[in-house]
Write a structure and sequence with these properties.
By secondary structure, the chain is an alpha+beta fold. It is 37% helix and 21% strand.
């Protein structure tokens, strides 16, 4: 995620437009490292959430309120004493640092007008909220940093506030061409890394975008660039940051299906394969992005037990399959034992007693063969021994053929469950998957009088030509879509030879355009185990040719004479309902 200096610049622009001149009405501290300021402005009441969490530092405008502890922490009480009812004079960002300084004007105990600074540092585990006086002397901070904790800077009451320059980075908004070239050339690393380690506020994603806009390979060292290419890179760098200087921000979230992959305040053209969701407000973007991320994280945590059950069963069945396959291979030579028995019956009448071998013509191949014999047995007994060996391996082969198919079906089924867990985006999806695992005996059902309510629904898309496309999230939904929702002339799609969703296109008894076939194919590719591959083979056929396998697990079907297409899994242009 690119919570870099560019995003902070976008935030500062938005906060200035929304909060400048506003009065701080309420100050709350919902968490030990979090503040929630309520600010009254001419446009109405606003809430500013500030978090210095080591794992997720944030600052943005929000409409949501959060419960606070009954007894306010000391830092919160200090802020209430000094800046409650204070007026916000300005909100600024030093250079392009991930720092926001809020200048507040208020009356002190004697009624004199004075100014204070609330400084928010968005710096990963070093994030902090620092309260300073007019002379930049620290009054207090939400996190105290002693000399034992940091050799670079102490953050304690009474100390002078300063920004630590540990990386000696330059300001990208003012850098000259000569300094730009010198900084990059002296770093023996990839071009993109040289850019984001040389200038403040640039994330690896932004550095990659600058290289992409310049048409340069981001992995080569800057020292390999000619002077002309370096000048071209600098000009593109300048154009890119002119957007920051001019405030021409275009905040977007980039998603892969429903999963958010990245966000940025400036366009990321090298993410052309992802779907871009534009926002008017960077605060709304941040709130939505982290809300979606938190939802996915929570879903993955909640699905951990189910994943463990599925993965354990998969590993067990794969080992069983390998063992059964080895045993099956051992029966491949069974026919020769039958031939040996027949040849002994044919040619063994002249064998002397105690013979250890028989050399005879194999009348099936017209080749001479040597058949080992047990000298303690008669020719008839030796023949019978080979016939028994043949029959035993034949029975083993027949039994293993059935068992291997059952094991393979079990592996395929478990892989389909694993794919359904990857697709799951909501807790309701997990409930239905757990119910299926209980039905098939992989998870023990707990007795409960309360019936489980299933509310999960298939994905619903609309093709560019206006046709409804439904995608099953799990085996139950696949079966429902194929055998209840779809009618005879609707089209059915599925990734060939791998676990994936059933995709149904409602044809409305019409002939589908080629574009709809392609979009349905992309959805089948995306919601399969082959998602992300450049090319995925898709089978498609009218629903009337799909048959359910008798006594098979949910979602298993058979079909013949299908059509095929090879396509990518990019669904960015398909509208979801």
């Amino acid at each position: 995620m690119a919570f870099d200096g560019i995003t902070v610049a976008n935030l500062v622009q938005e906060l200035n437009a929304s909060l400048n001149g506003g009065r701080i009405y309420k100050i709350a501290q919902p968490e030990s490292d979090e503040l929630l300021l309520t600010i009254k402005t001419p446009a109405g009441q606003k809430r500013l959430l500030i978090s210095a969490s080591a794992s997720l530092p944030l600052i943005y405008l929000t409409a949501d309120n959060k419960p606070s502890p009954m007894n306010a922490p000391n830092f919160c009480m200090l802020l209430r004493k000094h800046i409650s009812n204070g007026r916000i004079i300005s909100i600024s960002q030093p250079k392009l640092e991930r720092i926001i300084s809020i200048e507040i004007e208020h009356l002190d105990e004697l009624g004199d007008l004075c100014r204070k600074y609330l400084i928010v540092e968005i710096m990963g585990k070093h994030s902090n909220i620092i309260f300073c006086d007019t002379n930049q002397r620290i009054i207090d901070s939400i996190k105290h940093v002693s000399s034992q904790m940091s050799s670079v800077r102490e953050v304690l009451p009474g100390r002078t506030y300063f920004i630590p320059d540990t990386m000696e980075k330059s300001d990208p908004l003012t850098v000259s061409e000569a300094v730009f070239s010198e900084l990059l050339i002296r770093k023996p690393m990839s071009l993109s890394k040289a850019i984001y380690t040389s200038f403040t506020g640039i994330s690896p994603v932004a550095a990659e975008e600058i290289c992409h806009l310049s048409g340069l390979d981001s992995s080569i060292p800057a020292s390999e660039l000619s002077s002309d290419l370096m000048l071209h890179l600098y000009k593109q760098f300048r154009i890119y940051f002119d957007q920051v200087t001019e405030g021409a921000f275009k905040p977007c979230i980039y998603t892969d299906g429903k999963e958010p992959k990245e966000f940025s305040s400036l366009p990321l053209t090298h993410f052309a394969a992802l779907q871009a969701i534009p926002y008017d407000s960077v605060s709304a973007l941040l709130q939505d992005y982290y809300s979606m991320k938190n939802t996915l994280t929570r879903i993955r945590q909640k699905s951990a037990d189910l994943r463990h059950v599925v993965q354990t069963s998969l590993e067990r069945n794969r080992k069983k399959y390998e063992l059964q396959s080895k045993q099956l291979r051992d029966t491949e030579g069974r026919d020769k034992f039958k031939v040996y028995g027949e040849l002994i019956h044919t040619y063994g009448y002249h064998l002397p007693e105690g013979s250890k071998k028989l050399e005879a013509l194999n009348y099936y191949t017209n080749e001479m063969v040597t058949i080992p014999l047990d000298p303690a047995k008669t020719p008839q007994e030796n023949a019978q021994r080979y016939f028994e060996k043949y029959n035993k391996q034949k029975r083993t082969f027949e039994a293993l053929s059935t068992l291997i198919q059952e094991t393979q079906d079990e592996i395929t089924y478990l892989e389909s469950i694993s794919n359904a867990l990857d697709i799951a985006l909501e807790e309701d999806d997990l409930i239905q998957i757990k119910e299926e695992l209980m039905e098939t005996g992989y998870v023990k059902r707990k007795f409960s009088k309360k019936k489980v309510k299933i509310t999960s629904k298939p994905f619903h898309y609309i093709s560019s030509d206006g046709y409804d496309i439904f995608v099953g999230k799990n085996n139950y939904q696949n079966e429902e879509l194929t055998f209840q929702v779809a009618t005879g002339n609707d089209w059915w799609f599925h990734a060939k030879g791998c676990p994936g969703s059933h995709v149904i296109v409602k044809a409305n008894n019409e002939e589908l355009p080629d574009r709809t076939f392609e979009e349905a194919g992309r959805l089948a590719a995306f919601y399969s185990k082959n998602r992300g591959n450049d090319k995925v083979e898709i089978d498609y056929i009218q629903k009337k040719h799909i048959k359910k396998v008798k006594s098979a697990k949910p979602g298993f079907v058979i079909y013949h004479t299908n059509y095929s297409l090879v396509i990518d899994s990019d669904i960015s242009g398909i509208r979801q309902i």
